[in-house]
TrEMBL record:
InterPro entries recorded: Isochorismatase-like_dom, Isochorismatase-like_hydrls, Isochorismatase-like_sf
Keyword Hydrolase among record annotations: yes
Family per similarity comment: Belongs to the isochorismatase family.
Keywords: Hydrolase
Protein name, per record: Cysteine hydrolase family protein
Organism annotation: Lederbergia graminis
Domain called Isochorismatase-like: residue spans: 3-142
One GO molecular-function entry: hydrolase activity
Known EC number: 3.-.-.-
């Protein structure tokens, strides 16, 4: 069975920049999974540092309004991996999931770590590249011209163990939408 992970779509991240395109694609994938009656699991990251935009209990730690209404199942985490010290693996086993689709934030941290951890646990993994986003950019990494999402998508694709698609390819391969 397939399941969708919606990782860290929280106010403290989404309000950092203009992520309208990413949010629209994430919503479209959520709606497709809901239409197919497949599990959609939200992941929320929390930090203990009060200055963090994802400090537990802060407005920043809440799910963003664009996706909040779809959140039937929410798993909390405190590391980049959605599996580490969470009950995600147990939830997926209970649901009979063997194929995970990855969307959310931040592409090069929580989305990537979760995709790799899922593969390591034996899941088939599909990473929907342009349905992920990041608050970081070429200046963050002091690498002029770096397209973080494209770079990470290429690395994961070259691994030949994680399927990397853009949204249009996802629609063509998996969606019930026209």
């Amino acid at each position: 069975m397939q399941a969708l992970l919606v990782i860290d779509v929280q106010n403290g991240i989404v309000e950092f920049d203009n992520f309208d395109e990413e949010l629209t694609l994430i919503q479209n994938v959520i709606k497709d999974f809901k239409k197919k009656e497949l599990p959609v699991i939200f992941i929320r990251h929390f930090d203990d540092a009060e200055e963090s935009p994802l400090f537990r209990g802060s407005r920043g730690s809440e799910l963003h309004e664009s996706v909040k209404e779809y959140a039937d199942c929410v798993i909390e985490k405190q590391t980049p991996s959605s599996f580490y010290k969470t009950d995600l693996a147990e939830k997926l086993k209970e649901l009979g999931v063997d194929h995970l689709f990855i969307t959310g934030f931040n592409t090069e941290f929580c989305c990537m770590f979760t995709a790799i951890a899922a593969y390591d646990r034996g899941y088939e993994v599909t990473f929907i590249e342009n349905a992920t986003g990041t608050v970081n950019n070429e200046e963050s990494y002091e690498m002029p011209g770096l397209d973080i999402r494209d770079f990470l998508g290429t690395v994961l694709h070259w691994s030949e163990v994680i399927e990397v698609l853009d949204y249009d390819e996802y629609v063509e391969a998996y969606s019930t939408s026209e």
